[in-house]
Amino acid sequence: MAKDRMKITFKKLSELPEMVMSLKSMAANPTHSWRNLKPVIDYANCINCLICWKFCPDAAIDLEGEDKPVINLNFCKGCGICAEECPKKCIEMIKEGR
Amino acid sequence: MKKVIMGNHALSYGAMLARVQVISAYPITPQTQVVELLSEIVADKRLAAEFIKVESEHSAMAACIGAAASGARTFTATSSQGLALMHELLHWAAGARLPIVMADINRAMAPPWSIWTDQNDSLSQRDTGWMQYYCQSNQEVLDTLLQAYKVSEKVLLPAMIVLDAFSLSHTYENVDIPDIEQVDKYLPPFVYPYKLDPQQPHTFGGLTTPEWYMEFRYKIQAAMEQALPLVTQAGKEFGDQFGRHYDTVDPFMVDDAETVLVTSGTAASTARYTVEQLRRKGVKVGNLRIRLFRPFPFADVRRHLKKAKRVIVMDRNISFGHHGIFAQEVKSALYGHVDAPVFDYIVGLGGRDIFPATIENIIARSQKAKKPSQDMHWVEVKE
């Protein structure tokens, strides 16, 4: 979650790598606050086809067991591609409360 | 082994000898044979490399960037509009400090459509952070490719090997192809310190605030400055091992020359023939060929031009609204150091031949003048 966020800080030039790179993976950089709309899966109609999981551009859909898609709300940016691609139209984009 | 090969194939053999691991390219005249032969070499298993077919030059460079970031030695080749299409990713390769080596076969930019040589394609990429070597012979093309990997992988900057369309790319010359065991001794395997590794995931090229962006730029410039003596060193080591020495510039009869003709690429061969002819008539003329364009060899250029009474730059390129690009660079190197006037001649655009008579004319015109009557002269332009 947000508390794990790691800000990249350097004190001097010699600490800087040649290549611009994070010190950790993007797992340390949650992007949930970018989201206006939140995908909500209606599991009663979900056929576990995993199309949403394949299409998510941020790999923000995890699998529970073999084939149950679960939105990782720490990283989902709310783009809505999963809802658009779902053949059963069982993913609804719901406005985030503030 | 000596072999009579075209300039394009000198690149293919060079890439094979460098044991490149990933090749990705899109065909464009006059570059096509470079990767055509390489694809055969990979298919024949003479080289253990991935050959990635792509749908554009932009993708070719993107594939090389991904491969280089995963620690592979990478190679591609292009020309003209293809190089222009890569432009965005050329910045990416340099900014990410990936030592990709690429060949650019100098071809004039369209429109009007042309397939023949001039330098505006590569010189348009001057400020992307790529090193640039301009070659004069097929042998130099092959040798430079090996030296380029050696230098680039030390300073982590990408490099462009530049050669003239047709007058080099399709011209057959005798080339000594070194034994791969010898090349292995010269060029060790590539080890990239910032490798993409799923075991240790990192985000590459992420957003960098004004607090640190400038430092990354500073480091690229520092690497360019560091590369300059390394090019000399790599050229010397190459000479010690293979008998052919190289440096940032290549002087020919400049020591006592009153007039020095500055050239690059294949125009230097014609310039040298002309210099020899004029020397027989007692004209004190010499030729300085600029081999390394980025980083620019300021000190070497000054050293060879400091005794000249006049400097003539032949530019097979034009910066519209300014002057010839090599002339700009030479002037900026001489300013405050060498007083000789610099005459700039625009010549041979779009593959128009540069004959010895063309060069004799240029020299004759400038011999009469104390300083140039214009900042730039167009040669043999129809009235």
Indicate how many domains the architecture of chain B comprises. Answer: 2
Shape of chain A: elongated
CATH topology tier name of the largest domain in chain B = Rossmann fold
> Which strand order do you get reading across the main beta sheet of chain B?
3-2-4-5-7-6-12
Q: How would you characterize the overall build of this protein?
A:
- The complex is a heterodimer of chains A (98) and B (383).
- Chain A is of the alpha+beta class.
- Chain A has a single domain, classed as Alpha-Beta Plaits, CATH 3.30.70.20.
- Chain A has helices at 51-55, 81-85; strands spanning 37-41, 61-64, 68-71, 91-95.
- The model of chain A has no long low-confidence stretch (mean pLDDT 88).
- With 383 residues, chain B is of the alpha/beta class.
- Chain B has two domains: 2-242, Rossmann fold (3-Layer(aba) Sandwich), CATH 3.40.50.970; 249-378, Rossmann fold (3-Layer(aba) Sandwich), CATH 3.40.50.920.
- Chain B is built from 13 helices and 15 strands.
- Chain B has helices at 7-17, 32-43, 57-69, 80-85, 87-95, 120-123, 138-155, 180-186, 210-242, 267-280, 298-305, 325-334, 356-367; strands spanning 2-6, 22-25, 50-53, 74-78, 101-106, 131-134, 159-164, 172-176, 249-252, 259-263, 285-290, 292-294, 310-315, 342-346, 377-378.
- In chain B, strand 2, helix 2 and strand 3 (50-53) form a beta-alpha-beta unit.
- In chain B, helix 1 runs parallel beside helix 2 (32-43), helix 1 (7-17) runs parallel beside helix 7 and helix 7 packs across helix 9.
- The longest helix of chain B has 33 residues, at 210-242.
- The model of chain B has no long low-confidence stretch (mean pLDDT 96).
- The chains are: A alpha+beta (98), B alpha/beta (383).
- Chain A binds chain B through residues 10, 13, 16-27, 29, and chain B through 69, 95-98, 156, 193-194, 201-206, 208, 212, 215-216, 218-219, 223.
